Amino acid sequence: xxxxxxxxxxxxxxxxxxxxxxxxxxxxxxxxxxxxxxxxxxxxxxxxxxxxxxxxxxxxxxxxxxxxxxxxxxxxxxxxxxxxxxxxxxxxxxxxxxxxxxxxxxxxxxxxxxxxxxxxxxxxxxxxxxxxxxxxxxxxxxxxxxxxxxxxxxxxxxxxxxxxxxxxxxxxxxxxxxxxxxxxxxxxxxxxxxxxxxxxxxxxxxxxxxxxxxxxxxxxxxxxxxxxxxxxxxxxxxxxxxxxxxxxxxxxxxxxxxxxxxxxxxxxxxxxxxxxxxxxxxxxxxxxxxxxxxxxxxxxxxxxxxxxxxxxxxxxxxxxxxxxxxxxxxxxxxxxxxxxxxxxxxxxxxxxxxxxxxxxxxxxxxxxxxxxxxxxxxxxxxxxxxxxxxxxxxxxxxxxxxxxxxxxxxxxxxxxxxxxxxxxxxxxxxxxxxxxxxxxxxxxxxxxxxxxxxxxxxxxxxxxxxxxxxxxxxxxxxxxxxxxxxxxxxxxxxxxxxxxxxxxxxxxxxxxxxxxxxxxxxxxxxxxxxxxxxxxxxxxxxxxxxxxxxxxxxxxxxxxxxxxxxxxxxxxxxxxxxxxxxxxxxxxxxxxx
Length: 593
Fold this sequence. Notes:
InterPro entries: Secre_tail. The chain is mainly beta. It folds into 4 domains: about 5-190, Galactose-binding domain-like (Jelly Rolls), CATH 2.60.120.260; about 195-215 and about 230-330, Sandwich (Immunoglobulin-like), CATH 2.60.40; about 345-500, Jelly Rolls, CATH 2.60.120; about 510-590, Immunoglobulin-like (Sandwich), CATH 2.60.40.1930. The protein contains 2 helices and 40 strands. Strand 34 and strand 35 form a beta hairpin. The longest helix is centred in the middle third of the chain and has 5 residues, at about 220-225. The model has no long low-confidence stretch (mean pLDDT about 90).
């Protein structure tokens, strides 16, 4: 690589750091949901989990050692001299929304280190920061590289995290990495000509991107959205994000800030939910901007839709490397389910595995705009090294009794969740034998049979739910409200559990006449062939083998598309289940040769 080296981790949106700058190893995760108030949206987080989500040690007991690392591609510093003022700068943070890191000690090292590669090919320690068991804000560090041994054609630098290798308690984040020549301010070079979107919102959650564009949920059925009472809206009246001003002085003019919304995948913009012009303060550098998502109406058409809410800054910056961080967006799905979570797990939670009395249960409250039927429940299981076996789970629907779940459920269904889930699945969906009629307020959730096991499920720390909307039952049958409290932060977090509805349809399957409108071709099909669904619009396709096990499901981004790029499934008879927009299902037999 040639200078300058720059990465503020705005791309990719989530995943491995881009290989243009970094070696594709080490386990660091680019994201905008773990770090607290970063300089710009997106950071590289180094933690105790491998890319597959399992701990580095694979042990249940604590074991300290090397965690994630982040290594630059080779950079050509050849031909430069100490007079060229070459400096490497970066911002770092100890801890994350997951919690406060453990304190560093002799036998329990918890630290972030920077190594640089000299002209002999040896890695030298250039900087180190030990954890003091405190979560920090982002702090700027500048490294002087003006020595001949660093100014060579194969220079590299590497961040290495050390901590508890058995869990995810020790997190470090890196942001705004700059390596360049001509930085004449030396180690005081800590400001840049850049205004950027960041994460979280002052007065609210300090992490994550834009808040949910919905007022009560992160996703909801489109027909319930459309049925909002007259004079009210399901859209959020306070949608926004933090902004960072990384400039050294006062801005000469205000910047324009625009919020827009459009229907994906390629729909035209529906309009603006924010349009203002304002200056940004230099001290403090972090500010926030909000607008009303309900300022722009969304068409109340019956079909499912995915909306993208975008916030963009017109900063008049001329450096192309800083332009990407001027824009941030949040998608919201109006489909056939309710959700309080955003689809990403930052932590885990579990029920107490009682050995006597009633089984423990979690229950979410949902408040309907019109009567409906519950088809099933989606759960986000997390299988750990200590509990990798399939698990039995019972889902339930409860009526409302004086503001809490009833003692007896309206419906119950027991099923087994396998490990691993089918490829592409994050949630396991369990369906009731028949849709369950509900109106007003109702509760849906799961209970854990007394198996003497801690069964973990995903906890989204960047979302929340209204007060008294999550309940837990103990082994005496008593219900009480629940809040999640991340270490060192106010109550926060949403159990990743979603209610699937039917739009008032009482039957789970479509009529024979409606089902006859769908067909598959080619059928029989060769292994690995893309199969096409001919017929009316559907919401999602799922493939089952002859034993009734799910072997493939359309990814969310492809849901409802007629082309089914099936993986290389073994020859045999399969069932393709098409879920219709109203929640009913159609089954079609498929033969693979």
